[in-house]
């Protein structure tokens, strides 16, 4: 009998890697179906106004042209808003940004569909557009929607006037963060296949298959049961494929309905930049009252978000930013107002971190302002205020367990040799060096605002030959979901991971599991797997006991077999699976897990905003060229309390990738618009970091187990990116001797700060 | 993907992954589209369409090139290797194996191009150091990994 | 679109004679042309691929100078010992040029004819006082590169003429290239410049100095005011660096403002010149 090896905490190579390195993985773009046609959006070329005429006739001249579809061709509801119903599937009257989709052109080839869409003539009456938050705020009439405010959230806890009265010092700062483009490598795309019985099958690069099911059914006016949505392997998403695929799929479904043939729609890169959502730009004002020895007493925080033309996920981004606005610190008196304003710019929506990187930039820059003004070391200031078990978060959520933020700060500071590096002479010759820290907490899963949707399923099905399939409803978007859920299922069944195949998520396989977002896969699917195990494991044990003529209580599932712990006799999992079948026992189980009830008051924003939090600290070491202002990040020390690492190497990969995106957002990814047009739509103008731009990364794992997490685990996908930019800004601020309170820190801004 | 109304054709002969291929192609068809749409060698990916990302990297007459920047007709008489030709289905190269072992792969969309660039780099230079690997792979954008584990894999393979 | 790949110079010239100038496009490496097609530029009726003509490629030592065929790839220059040893600034420009896949296709002739203000091989070619050799139906002519490039995307090529090669005098002196991009690789230059200098190490003065800068005007510019002031001089560079302003006219664009370009150019150039005069 070989020694038992747990699958948890093991760096199992990714289950999808062999196909990916060989180029065998079939992404949506790689699928060609018989009789397939192509669709492409016809979109607004003005920022704000009213459509007065649409003339599709010129498109008909394109060889291979089939048809165009407009709003009046929608049999169901012309609405694709995901939370707020503010977004028509096809604009019929008002257009609200350059890129607002008006119709769909369908043709025999991809290039013909694209050309036909460009040739459709649309006449407008233009309105003065609102191209910034500041302009949007001033509107008195002619609002973008019924008002220019998309949503507000607040936190009102303690008494801020008393807090400010008691404070020794009051410190204020204004912080600004920009749009960020996901630049997932695989473009947005889908295929919709009309089937018999009025059914449709949708394939796509889709994070949230149940959102798409609803959007397609809604547009076509058919029941959900007639829409099957299958997630093809996703070539990167980062939140960008949360709600946007609903638009593509529903529009393609309109075409599939009319044409009666499979319809493929893939966005070209320039259009992907102009049409789809990005990270919300934030303007933040922080006013903090502290004691002279650096204790936080009170915070008054105003967060203003640029929602763009449609709300998409603004209300939950705005919620998350508010709930985390003062970070992982104890603060007894706090008032947060978080408001998203509509503008006539591309919509802002979900992007890895979902408001957290922006809020973290706010609270972590302001922590360094406080440290500067009080003459306290930034690490010491953070440790003085940091959340510990028993403390309350800024929303008044009393934390009981898995509060690893203090450990992440200490371990990152130790690894970075913080005390010595921070003291070093930073202005030596051409280059200046700086080191900066940022800490954050990230509420796992959807939180109180999305609690109703915060359940998820996993289905284990055992085949008669001992192979196993696993179905789930969230998403493998590159982060390694299929690998960690394979490990967790292998663990509960005591089998080798090689026996398990994870099926592409499909709405037909498991019940609605909510969106594949919010770093929720490990927690939700992991717990659902444990729940499924609680049903199927007793069945397996009873079957094994029958075969081994012993008591089920004595059976352990491990080492690819079922063992009688008393006698040491064992039955191989192949034989056990076959015995399930021939003894007429169930061969599958559907597991479910829902986040427990949260006590939260939406009026005051006080209570349990999320059921638990992942904690992160990044320390950045930067080198600034005093001649050019160019910043090179030399190293990031990234300490993360993730409860328990299911797959440490995969987790490191998440952190390293998150850091790279944080470096991009901080320094090189300068997203720009001019008169509502994206003028940085491609990789030569929107500078995603290359191999030469990334820093060294040292990942430090803090494992402070979460009692409700599977094997103690919490989410890592988003925490990986959240503190990076703030840490870099704090480091550059030290290097240049001036506060860097806005992103991106272009060489020009840095060079000017050096003067 | 380029568009033109009056299509002219060209009788193209190329060797793709060791096999001679003769096809009549539109003169405006990009090599990338020829490989993907006509030959269904879909391991070669399109991301940016303008030579900035390296996802469409193939090896043309022994050199890495962006197949989005080349017309199929330009490759007339040439030898092309795509990711499919590297491992011929099942037998992965040492470098591909290193990508698996080192957890270098996440979403995977950049990986075929990345693997070909890395193979070519190693072909030209035995045991490249990290700096040379970084420079050699600078034309291949990855949005998931931060590149570290990719560089690890190339470095490890070089050490063997 | 008709595709042609002539295999000899006479065949090419004959072909161009038969085509209407407005209807054909010459194709070298394609690394600049193809993105323009991709972003919507109309395809031409005739596409003439120059890569079939062998005599257009190669680096030849001609004694007092070297001749680089216009179809020579950036990678071939980067791998050339001759370029590496004798034309350091040009070698540096090729080494920092885009990335491998582009260097394998892009040609020096394409970089010249594309006439981008930010083209990385151009400041070194200007600094070396390169001549370009042009062939056409009326015969052959040579012009200095600065006269050949007349504006962004504009050259002195007449109808049916072809850039045959570029000729570099073997420079007496040390040369260096600098490129400022917003990313560490794969970046369009915000500024770039090349310096060719002969330095008297004893006296710490420039006996000879040529500076050419890119991305600071519609074409690459010689910084003659500064270079002239430093002739037989090497002191007080900081005090006269503002002379640079008289030769450049940068603009604001998506990558940087004119003010930043001026400031960064002066900072880096002053630093580079001081290092040159003091350390060599």
Task: Give a brief rundown of this model.
With 755 residues, chain A is an alpha+beta fold. Chain A is built from 18 helices and 31 strands.
Main beta sheet of chain A: strand number and arrangement? 7 strands, mixed
Radius of gyration of chain C: 19 Å
Rg of chain A from C-alpha positions? 27 Å
CATH class term of the largest domain in chain A: Alpha Beta
Structural summary, described in words:
By secondary structure, chain A is of the alpha+beta class. Chain A is 28% helix and 25% strand. Chain A has three domains: 148 residues, Aldehyde oxidase/xanthine dehydrogenase, molybdopterin binding domain (Aldehyde Oxidoreductase, domain 4); 176 residues, Aldehyde oxidase/xanthine dehydrogenase, a/b hammerhead (Aldehyde Oxidoreductase, domain 3, Alpha-Beta Complex), CATH 3.90.1170.50; 237 residues, Aldehyde Oxidoreductase, domain 4 (2-Layer Sandwich), CATH 3.30.365.10. In chain A, the strands form eight sheets. Chain A has a seven-stranded mixed β-sheet with strand order 3-5-1-12-9-10-11, sandwiched between helices. Chain A has a five-stranded mixed β-sheet with strand order 7-15-14-13-8, sandwiched between helices. Chain A is globular and about 80 Å long. Chain A starts with 16 loop residues before the first helix and ends with a helix. Chain B contains six helices and five strands. In chain C, the strands form four sheets. In chain C, strands 4-5-10-6-7 form a five-stranded antiparallel β-sheet. In chain C, strands 11-12-13-14 form a four-stranded antiparallel β-sheet. Chains in contact: A-B, A-C, B-C. Chains A and B meet through helix 1, helix 2 and helix 16 of A and helix 2, helix 3, helix 4, helix 5 and helix 6 of B.
């Amino acid at each position: 009998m070989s020694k038992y090896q747990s699958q948890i905490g093991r760096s199992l190579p990714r289950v999808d890697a062999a196909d990916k390195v060989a180029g065998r993985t079939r992404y949506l773009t790689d699928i060609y179906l018989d009789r397939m046609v192509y669709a492409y959006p016809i979109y607004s070329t003005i920022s704000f106004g009213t459509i007065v005429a649409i003339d599709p006739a010129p498109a008909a001249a394109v060889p291979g042209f089939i048809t165009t579809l407009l709003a009046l061709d929608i049999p169901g509801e012309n609405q694709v808003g995901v939370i707020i119903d503010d977004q028509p599937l096809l604009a019929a009257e008002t257009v609200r940004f350059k890129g607002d989709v008006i119709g769909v052109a369908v043709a025999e080839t991809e290039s013909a569909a694209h050309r036909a869409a460009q040739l459709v003539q649309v006449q407008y009456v233009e309105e003065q557009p609102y191209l910034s938050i500041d302009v949007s705020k001033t509107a008195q009439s002619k609002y973008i929607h019924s008002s220019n405010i998309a949503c507000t959230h607040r936190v009102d806890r303690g008494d801020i006037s008393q807090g400010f009265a008691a404070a020794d010092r009051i410190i204020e700062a204004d912080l600004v963060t920009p749009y960020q483009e996901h630049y997932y490598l695989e473009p947005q795309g889908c295929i919709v296949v009309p089937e018999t019985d009025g059914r449709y099958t949708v394939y796509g690069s889709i994070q949230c298959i149940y959102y798409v099911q609803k959007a397609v059914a809604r547009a076509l006016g058919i029941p959900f049961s007639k829409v099957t949505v299958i997630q093809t392997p996703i070539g990167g998403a980062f939140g960008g494929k949360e709600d946007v695929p609903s638009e593509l799929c529903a529009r393609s479904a309109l075409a599939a309905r009319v044409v009666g043939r499979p319809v493929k729609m893939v966005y070209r890169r320039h259009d992907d930049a102009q049409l789809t959502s990005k990270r919300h730009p934030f303007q933040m004002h922080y006013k903090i009252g502290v004691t002279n020895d650096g204790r936080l007493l009170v915070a008054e925080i105003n967060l203003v978000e640029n929602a763009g033309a449609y709300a998409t996920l603004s209300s939950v981004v705005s919620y998350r930013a508010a709930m985390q606005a003062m970070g992982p610190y104890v603060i007894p008196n706090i008032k947060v107002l978080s408001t998203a304003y509509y503008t006539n710019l591309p919509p802002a929506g979900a992007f890895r971190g979902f408001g957290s990187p922006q809020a973290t930039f706010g609270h972590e820059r302001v922590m360094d302002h406080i440290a500067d003004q009080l003459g306290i070391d930034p690490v010491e200031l953070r440790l003085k205020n940091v959340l510990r078990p028993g403390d309350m978060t800024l929303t008044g959520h009393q934390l009981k367990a898995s509060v690893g933020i203090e450990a992440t700060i200490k371990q990152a500071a130790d690894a970075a040799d913080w005390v010595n590096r921070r003291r070093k002479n930073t202005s030596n010759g051409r280059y200046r060096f700086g080191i900066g820290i940022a800490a954050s907490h990230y509420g796992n899963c959807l939180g109180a605002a999305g609690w109703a949707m915060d359940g998820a399923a996993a289905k284990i099905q055992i085949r008669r030959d001992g192979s196993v399939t696993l179905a789930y409803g969230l998403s493998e978007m590159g982060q390694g979901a299929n690998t960690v859920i394979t490990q967790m299922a292998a663990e509960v069944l005591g089998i080798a991971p090689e026996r398990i195949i994870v099926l592409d998520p499909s709405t037909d396989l498991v019940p609605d599991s909510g969106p594949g977002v919010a770093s929720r896969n490990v927690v939700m699917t992991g717990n659902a797997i444990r729940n499924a195990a609680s049903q199927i494991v007793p069945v397996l044990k009873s079957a094994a006991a029958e075969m081994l003529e012993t008591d089920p209580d004595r059976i352990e599932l491990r080492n690819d077999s079922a063992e009688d712990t008393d006698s040491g006799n064992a039955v191989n999992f192949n034989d056990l699976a076959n015995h399930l079948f021939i003894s007429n026992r169930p061969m599958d189980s559907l597991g479910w897990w829902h986040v427990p009830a949260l006590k939260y008051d939406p009026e005051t924003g006080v209570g349990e905003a999320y059921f638990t939090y992942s904690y992160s600290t990044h320390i950045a070491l930067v080198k600034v060229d005093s001649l050019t202002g160019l910043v090179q990040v030399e190293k990031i020390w990234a300490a993360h309390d993730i409860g328990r690492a299911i797959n440490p190497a995969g987790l490191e990969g998440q952190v390293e990738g998150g850091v790279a995106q944080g470096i991009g957002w901080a320094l090189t990814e300068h997203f720009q618009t001019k008169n509502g047009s994206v003028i940085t739509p491609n990789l030569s103008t929107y500078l995603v970091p290359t191999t030469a731009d990334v820093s060294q990364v040292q990942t430090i794992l803090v494992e402070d187990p979460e009692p409700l997490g599977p094997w103690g685990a919490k989410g890592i996908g988003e925490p990986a990116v959240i503190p990076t930019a703030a840490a870099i800004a704090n480091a550059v601020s030290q290097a240049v001797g001036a506060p860097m309170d806005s992103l991106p820190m272009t060489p020009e801004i840095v060079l000017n700060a050096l003067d | 993907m380029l568009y033109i109304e009056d299509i002219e054709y060209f009788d193209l002969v190329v060797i793709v992954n060791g096999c001679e291929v003769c096809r009549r192609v539109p003169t405006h068809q990009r090599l990338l589209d020829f490989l993907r749409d006509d030959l269904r060698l879909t391991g070669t990916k399109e991301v940016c369409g303008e030579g900035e990302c390296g996802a469409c990297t193939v090896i043309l007459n022994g050199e890495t090139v962006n197949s989005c920047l080349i017309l199929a007709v330009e490759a007339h008489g040439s030898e092309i290797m795509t990711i499919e030709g590297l491992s011929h289905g099942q037998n992965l190269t040492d470098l591909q194996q290193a990508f698996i072992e080192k957890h270098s792969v996440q979403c995977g969309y950049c990986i075929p191009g990345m693997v070909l660039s890395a193979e070519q780099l190693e072909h030209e230079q035995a045991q490249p150091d990290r700096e040379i690997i970084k420079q050699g792979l600078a034309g291949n954008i990855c949005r998931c990994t931060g590149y570290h584990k990719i560089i690890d894999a190339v470095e490890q393979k070089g050490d063997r | 679109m008709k595709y042609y790949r002539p295999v000899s110079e006479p065949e090419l010239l004959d072909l161009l004679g038969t085509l209407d100038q407005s209807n054909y496009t010459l194709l070298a490496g394609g690394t600049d042309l193809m993105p323009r097609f991709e972003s919507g530029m109309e395809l031409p009726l005739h596409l003439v691929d120059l890569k079939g003509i062998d005599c257009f490629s190669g680096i030849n030592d001609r004694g007092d100078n070297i001749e680089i065929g216009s179809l020579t790839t950036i990678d071939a220059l980067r791998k050339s010992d001759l370029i590496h040893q004798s034309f350091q600034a040009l070698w540096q420009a090729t080494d920092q040029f885009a990335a491998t896949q582009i260097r394998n296709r892009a040609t020096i002739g394409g970089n010249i004819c594309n006439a981008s203000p930010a083209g990385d091989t151009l400041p070194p070619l200007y600094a070396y006082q390169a001549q370009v050799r042009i062939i056409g139906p009326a015969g052959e002519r040579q012009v200095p590169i600065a006269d050949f490039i007349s504006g962004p995307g504009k050259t002195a090529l007449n109808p049916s003429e072809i850039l045959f090669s570029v000729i570099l005098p073997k420079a007496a002196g040390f040369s260096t290239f600098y490129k400022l991009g917003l990313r560490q690789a794969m970046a369009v230059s915000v500024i770039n410049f090349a310096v060719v200098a002969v330095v008297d190490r004893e006296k710490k003065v420039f006996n000879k100095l040529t500076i050419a800068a890119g991305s600071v005007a519609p074409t690459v510019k010689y910084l003659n005011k500064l270079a002239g002031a430093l002739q037989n001089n090497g002191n007080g560079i900081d005090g006269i660096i503002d002379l640079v302003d008289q030769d450049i006219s940068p603009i604001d664009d998506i990558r940087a403002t004119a003010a930043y370009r001026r400031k960064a150019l002066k900072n880096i150039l002053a630093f580079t010149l001081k290092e040159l005069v003091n350390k060599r």
